[in-house]
Amino acid sequence: MTLPIELKINGETLQVEIEPHESLVDVLRDRLNLTGTKKSCNLGNCGSCTVLLDGEPVNSCLVLALDARGKEIATIEGLARGEDLHPLQTAFVEEGAIQCGFCTPGMIMAAKGLLGRNPNPKEEEIREAIAGNMCRCTGYVKIVKAIQAASYRMQKRLRA
Q1: Alpha-carbon gap, residue 19 to 23, rounded angstroms
Q2: Cβ–Cβ under 8 Å, residues 41 and 58
Q3: In this structure, what CATH number is given to the domain that contains residue 64?
Q4: Residue 142: which domain range?
Q5: d(CA 88, CA 112)
Q6: Which residues of 80-109 are buried (b: 16+ CB within 10 A; e: fewer)?
Q7: 61 forms bridges with which residues in the sheet?
Q8: What's the confidence (pLDDT) of residue 160?
Q9: Of 24, 95, 100, whose CA–CA distance to 57 is shortest?
């Protein structure tokens, strides 16, 4: 039995038919073709499915799509504006914080949630914010530098 629901994703209201038991990550990927959100452990342990729900990072594998109704959902696809990458995306590329890339969307969304709450975080705050996101390639050093660089650029842009 499917249910029609309305979800607000990346500023756009979408109608979608879902099964009541479906997780948000499954609806994003399988029903709406928003495959930037990765699905890995499906247990909330790896962070690869991180999206923002009302501005806060959540593991979308642990959220029922039904529970996301009436909330603002932001995915990696919603960060860039056309060809203009978000400062976090640019910094990840420039700082070499991307290797295999599987963790990158979730890592960027966790960082976006942090910078939304704290535009100028200290290194330990960055590490705490991304602690739920596993990366097996980079060792996190370049990821932390990328988030610091994006924070700096975003602050600089606000002052201009």
Answers
A1: 9
A2: no
A3: 3.10.20.30
A4: 87-159
A5: 8
A6: eeeeeebbbbbbbeebebbeeebbbbbbbb
A7: none
A8: 65
A9: 24
Total domains present in the chain? 2
Q: In whole angstroms, what is the distance from residue 85 CA to residue 28 CA?
A: 21
Query: Structure tokens of 14?
Result: 């979408």
Q: Average pLDDT of each block of 10 consecutive residues along the chain (160 residues)? A: 97 97 98 97 97 98 98 98 96 95 97 97 98 92 98 85
Q: Which of 60, 78, 96 is the last residue of a domain?
A: 78
Q: Model pTM?
A: 0.95
- Are 19 and 69 members of one domain? yes
- CATH code for the domain in which residue 154 is found: 1.10.150.120
Task: Extract the tokens encoding 148.
Answer: 């610091």
